[in-house]
Amino acid sequence: MKSNYLLIIFLFLSTFGFAQSFDIGGTVKENSSGLSIPGVNVQIKNTNKGVSTDFDGKFSLKGIPSGSVVVFTFIGYKTFEYKVTASNNNMSVLMQDDAKALDEVVVIGYGSQKRREITGAVSVVDSKTLEILKPVKIEQALQGTVSGVNVTTQSGSPGAALDIRIRGIATNGENRPTTIIDGYVGELGLLNPNDIESITVLKDAQAAIYGTIGANGVILITTKTGKKNSKSRISYNTYTGFQETSQKLNLLNATEYALLLNESYANGGKALPYTNVSGLGKGTNWQNEVISKGVPIINHDLSISGGSDKVTYAVSGSHLDQEGIVGQSKSGFLRNTARVSLNADVSDKLKLKTNVIYTYFNRKTLSENGLGSVLFNALNIPSTLSPYNANGDFTVVPNTTGLGNEIINPLAQVANTNNDYNFKKLNGNFGLEYKLIDGLVLSSSMGFNSSNSKSRDFAKQISYGGKVFDVVRSSVTQGAVNDNNYSFDAFATYTKKIADHNFVTTIGNTIFKEWGSGLYATGYDVPNNSWDYADISLTTGILDAKTNSAYSYDERRLSYFGRMQYDFKGKYLLSGMIRRDASTKFGTGNKVGYFPSFTAGWVISDEGFFGEDKKINFMKLRASYGTLGNDQIPNNGYVSLLSGEATYVFDGSLVNGTATGQIANPDLKWEEARKFDVGLDLKLFNNKVSIVTDYFIDTRKDLLIPNIPVSGITGNYAPGASAPTVNAGTVRNSGLEFSVDYKNKFSENFNMSVGYNVTFLKNEVLEVNNGTGFIEGGSFGVGQPSPSRMQVGLPIGYFYGYKTDGVFQNQAEINAHPSQVALGANAAPGDIRFVDVNNDGVINSSDRTNIGNPIPTATMGFNLQMNYKNLDFAVYTFASVGNDMVRNYERTLSDANRLNYVLDRWTGEGTSNSVPRVTTGATANNVFSDYFVEDASYLRIQNIQLGYTLNPEVSEIVKITKLRLYAGVNNLYTFTKYKGFDPGASNGNPIGGGIDYGFYPVPRTFLLGLNINF
């Protein structure tokens, strides 16, 4: 009987235990949008049992005891805990955004760090921002979103390069930051924006870990990867739209032009060219002829990602096709990309990472940004001329003195322009991580870039009426270029915690090699004078002069680096790093450089004396100082090479040959950047407000100055020859950065985020030791001195010319003023009055002075995002204040067309004190002066977008986890007083930038897009 009781008790307990064990499951979604979240870690608390949600956000666990606590964790969201009972084994979990956890881990180079522990000036742009901005090129996403970063366009033509400047222009050489893609050196502008997970910008001494390539700042790109334990996720994004110009210049119509020309000829004592203007009307609007409307742009992007508990993968492809608003297909750009990312846990200790990207693009270009460009001709050709003559052929612009010999019909120019550029690139990396012992991880990575490009440019035999652009003999120029590099990184990271002391030590080395070659050749007499036959293999003509060229290069860099990161209780933070680089770009004695840096931080809000102030949730003071380098110069500057041209006498005959090119400088070495930064990070009002402010000083020493004057005996004026490059300059950038972000969820249906950032910058040249004390650059008009300079005590590239003081109203004012005849002509009433800067009683070249600065005093961005139920709205703006621009797109010939501001010209005493008279006679009005320098400050609405996401309950019926439609406008409007096409454009030259030669305008783009996730 006793045994029966024991059996009954055993069965009861077994039944009880079985009854209290459950199979649980459910779905995890975003609280704000209701969208499923794949990859969420679902763990039974205090056990090793767990799983990750699949692509649909679903999970299941079997045999979970009653009372167990299920913990849900995912980066960017608050940790959520759920207690298992008999009544709640089917869960519907809503996870909330965690402002503290967003971007918690930040890539800093050869490792990562929690945001709260970062002691350098680091900014991050995430994939959500990229999704809103829809940039064609990644660089555009940094404009207005990151303080201290300024992005300028060299042209609005599709595929044109963009210039990034981090904390100002520090050198007259290469100013672009280095881009590191998943650990290897890459090219930012070639990436598909939808492949990017995050962009990290290192702005201060934190970048010293990269040594000679870190002086201009470093941009770290992290690409997207798959999630563990998730089903395949398919994402398709597409947009299509049309483009138009964002700005047109106000030119004179035919009647206004004829009347003005008559007045000009009359003032010059010449017969009137138009005796009857009544039937001219408005004439031809040449801007409308060359700038098109409704120009298409289309983009497709498809990605597939997922993973198991050991392997994750991501595969993507994209296609972009964009025509130009000037010339349409003649300035088109097509880009295709493909990417494969694979990560695998080979064992518990060994991990494999791979990422390979293929890029192909085709680009066609028109003549732009200079004398004789398409837009230059469109602005200067008279509106009285028709595009076509009576036979339907292009009208020929008369070759007269008043129109010069370079203004031609821009439509004919577009039609006769034929070129093609094809580029293919394969790049990526392969990496291994091995956990040797607890806390010690060994890492190695091989990164590579291999690209091939082919170019073809056809010059059709054509006559424009005796102009300089006439082509007497048809020709085709073809080029083939191969560029390669690889980097091998091997480093060890050791993490150790001793009581409240935390240490992270990293040591390693990098081997970098780049090599390549190029070949260019020209063939003459193309069959049928046709683009269809434009190939060197088909040409039949020969030329006595050299018609081909080639080059090859092989450069290497060997580096060792180390970094120690320390913190005590997460409150006191220290970091020290040093890098040793040896580069073959420099000669014996200068190959090796050492680049140390130190950073420190103090989390004040963790101190006991700080109290429990709920208004200030986080406060960190940080500082950094270090030395970085810049070796981004042409190769082999320290040796003499036979790269020039010369003519020799052999056997009594002149023979073309080769001569020494750039004069060697064996003492050449890298530029040195000394960076100082002190910053403060704040989070306020329950983490709703974030404030980051930095004060910085960046001093660039040993600038690599080209064209140092030397003796003419060396023959450095021969074709292909040049003066040496010498370390002979110092430039300092100093400034203040401030950014504030506000995020708040006002209700279950409405949330908003607002961001504002501003950067104040001062640029000053401290030293120029090239013999003359200054360096000139840029060009203005025809035959005039260079308008830009680099000179001690002034900003790099400042404008150097004459100051003006209004317009002479009568002869008495002229008689009382110093003579201006040295500028080219005696002054007359209605002419510009120049200032005698040095007070020597005469106006001459000695009176030239600082008349403008192309570098903005301040740049800022304002960004707003709002979500209401299924609607989302975003607007991004950017402003530049204090930058000047030179108006150099007007030809000063008497018969060229003009902008309509000339209608306010001086026509008699008291009529105008700002715009001079018009005349065909000789004047000094066209010499470079502040009359041609304008305030180019502007505010631009960069992007505005409205989207609607279909209710997940509806979209899931057809197995779609997300369906979003949106409409947006890029480059909506620019508020500015500048008369030209784009106040934010630049030609990329530190000395000579800010000079407008007729910039191709950045288009306004209207987009309609669709995002679908399966």
From TrEMBL:
Gene Ontology cellular component terms for the protein in this record: cell outer membrane
Keyword Iron-sulfur: no
One of the protein's GO biological processes: siderophore transmembrane transport
Gene3D superfamilies: Carboxypeptidase-like, regulatory domain, TonB-dependent receptor, beta-barrel domain, TonB-dependent receptor, plug domain
Keyword annotations from UniProtKB, A to Z: Cell outer membrane, Membrane, Receptor, Signal, TonB box, Transmembrane, Transmembrane beta strand, Transport
Domain TonB-dependent receptor-like beta-barrel: 381-972
Domain TonB-dependent receptor plug: 115-218
Subcellular location: Cell outer membrane
Mode of membrane association: Multi-pass membrane protein
SUPFAM superfamilies membership: Carboxypeptidase regulatory domain-like (SSF49464), Porins (SSF56935)
Signal peptide span: 1-21
Main subcellular localisation: membrane
Any GO MF annotation of the entry: siderophore uptake transmembrane transporter activity
InterPro entries the UniProt entry points to: Beta-barrel_TonB, Beta-barrel_TonB_sf, CarboxyPept-like_regulatory, Plug_dom, Plug_dom_sf, TonB-dep_OMP_SusC/RagA, TonB-dep_OMP_SusC/RagA_CS, TonB-dep_rcpt-like
PANTHER family named in the record: HEMOGLOBIN AND HEMOGLOBIN-HAPTOGLOBIN-BINDING PROTEIN 1-RELATED (PTHR30069:SF29), TONB-DEPENDENT OUTER MEMBRANE RECEPTOR (PTHR30069)
Family the UniProt entry places it in: Belongs to the TonB-dependent receptor family.
Protein name: TonB-linked outer membrane protein, SusC/RagA family
Origin species: Flavobacterium gillisiae
